[in-house]
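Give me the fold.
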Amino acid sequence: MKNMINSLLICIAFLMALPIHSQELYQGISIATPSGSTAISNNGLMAAYDFETYTDDGFLKDFSSYNNHGKFSTNYSAEGNVGKARRFSKHEDIIVLPDNSSLNLTGPITFASKLKITKSGLHQHIFACTNMFVLWLTADNKYRFADTRGQGLLTDVSIDAVKNGEWHNVIAVLSAGKGLELNESNIRIFIDGKQVKGTYTKTWQPTELPIKNACVIGGELNGPEQHQKLQFEGIIDEMQIFSRAFTEDEIRIYSSI
């Protein structure tokens, strides 16, 4: 019995010595794990969507405590990275979030999503909160994470990953706040857990959310008129928005599957 206890203690000590990302894999957004993993803190979670769960009144369910449930007019389900996901192919497929002050984020911010791009070579918005922050792909397949007013991060080279129709983990992390100069330490984009090099423009200068339809998944309803007609062509799964910066461990865990 004593030997068994000693062996058990050794196993426990070994597990405790492992880095957190070796113990935990990403499991998926749920009521039990709104952040997708017990190893990703729910602190600062402003919105979380699994793209397969709906409220009783037919909105895309937000698993955060802020009830940012999404309104939509079309619904094209697809096989996801975790369970089911949502396919987008035209502007009418957008999901509009409620006009909620919880998304009035000036920084820090983390945006995380599992993406499968089905058509590259387009200027297409993955997510936008007009005048606050946006993540999009340029026509030459570069990711841009910006304050929607010209300041932000543009990846240096085209991302080949967007062309191959496979799932990829995309995380945009802003550690800076309003008015701070941007650099490789305080604004970052990670593809499948690896930071992508980029160029940095000026300082982070968000203003105020529009009164209506400010935050949209798969497009935009405010800002320049030409942006309001752009479609996103791809599949989105496991989207999360935080009012804080992910840690290195959280980036690895989210990108583990």
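The CA atoms of residues 110 and 245 lie 5 Å apart.
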